[in-house]
Amino acid sequence: MEVIPTAIEGVFIIKPRVFTDARGYFFESFSQREFDEKVGPVRFVQDNESMSQYGVMRGLHFQRPPFTQSKLVRCVRGAVLDVAVDLRKGSPTYGQHVAVELSEENHLQFFVPKGFAHGFSVLTETAVFQYKCDEFYHPEADDGISILDQSLGIDWRIPADKAILSEKDTKHLNLKDFETPFKDPL
């Protein structure tokens, strides 16, 4: 696998080696040994999957300490725009984001470390999205910032009249009104 650094330290795009022939393709989607060597030691404990239709926007989610999560995400059907926003108050990139298109064609994965909010928008008719987490889900620690916060400067590539959000995701605060629980870069 190739690990591609992004503009924010600790956030990586991961490009697997894909082997194709007349039968189709094969690639190793995850190797703990290679991940530990190239990204760092992260022990994933939970895998999740969602299926969404065009226009769905999920996020920007995170878990508060002591249940912070790192995520390794990928899109196995369709395409999404995936985004990580730095919420680490002492970080020089606080409030900045990295966005990458993940699709069944490009096979890219995106590593979102602890201290970041995460979200995505569905760019195709449907998308199946998978993610590995290094902490179990704790509903009492579930939180987020507004996916519609204009100050973040994220182009979700979805027209406003086509956006579909959960009721929960419409109630998150904008970054300027939010007190981050992540005081220093982790």
Count of DSSP-assigned helices: 1
CATH topology category name: Jelly Rolls
SSE string, helices as H and strands as E: EEEEHEEEEEEEEE
Q: Write out the CATH superfamily name.
A: Jelly Rolls
Describe this structure in words.
The structure is a single chain. A six-stranded antiparallel beta sheet has the order 1-2-10-7-12-5, with no helix packed on it. A five-stranded antiparallel beta sheet has the order 9-8-11-6-13, with no helix packed on it. A two-stranded antiparallel ribbon has the order 3-4. The chain has one helix at 32-38, and strands at residues 2-5, 12-15, 19-21, 24-26, 46-53, 57-63, 71-77, 79-86, 97-103, 109-112, 116-122, 126-133, 142-144. It has one domain (2-177): Jelly Rolls (Sandwich), CATH 2.60.120.10. The model has no long low-confidence stretch (mean pLDDT 95). With 186 residues, it is mainly beta.
Strand and helix layout:
Layout: E1 2-5, E2 12-15, E3 19-21, E4 24-26, H1 32-38, E5 46-53, E6 57-63, E7 71-77, E8 79-86, E9 97-103, E10 109-112, E11 116-122, E12 126-133, E13 142-144
Question: Any descriptors?
Answer:
Jelly Rolls; 186 residues; mainly beta; 1 helix; globular
